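User: I'm curious whether this sequence folds into something compact or stays loose and floppy. Could you predict its structure so I can see for myself?
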Amino acid sequence: MALSNLGNTSAAATATALSTQSVSEAQANFLKLLVTQMQNQDPLNPMDNAQMTSQIAQLNTVAGINQLNTTVHSLASGIQASQALQASNLLGRNVLVEGSAVQLAQGQAVMGVDFSKAADAVTITVKDSAGKVLRTLLTGAQAAGMQNIFWDGSTDAGGSAPDGNYSFVIEARRAGQAVAATALTAGRVDSVSIAANGLTLSVAGLGKVALADVRQVS
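Assistant: Here's the prediction. I'll summarize afterward.
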């Protein structure tokens, strides 16, 4: 490598070194390269001040980004720890997440619905695992937003469904026009864990659920 090109590569070499070395080590290596260049530069073609300043600026920029990344990572870890502490308050609480499953236990089941706007006629159809209709609930008018719908396990045939897992379908209308409605599944939070992609809740009957997916807590 020609001595006149040494300065052009010193900043790039230092930038690469930052990925495996500390900022202080990279700065020390850069200064060694810079001093070596100045000691061995061509007297007839010395490195000008602008070139030297540019190289130092590149080093400072890369070092600054490295320090910023470290700071952001530290802040993110602190926020995640704070969220985990707050999420621990959800243990034993019931939450609603998007889904059409419903669990009947001791003759009681809760279904959640998020209505995009008020509806004057709502039909909830409960089905078993085979897709057979067990119960059709006519709830009447419902306000916009999240609403809880309760089912006592009774069937359209006049009997009672056994405790277990079922599913439900929503049909909502307003003045004869369909109203968008999102089905929500209810479950109890058993544990909270920190995963690579954020906080995760273990919800009875639902498994792992991201904290960000929780729509309501009761």
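Summary: Residues 99 and 184 are 5 Å apart (CA to CA). The first strand starts at residue 94 and ends at 98.
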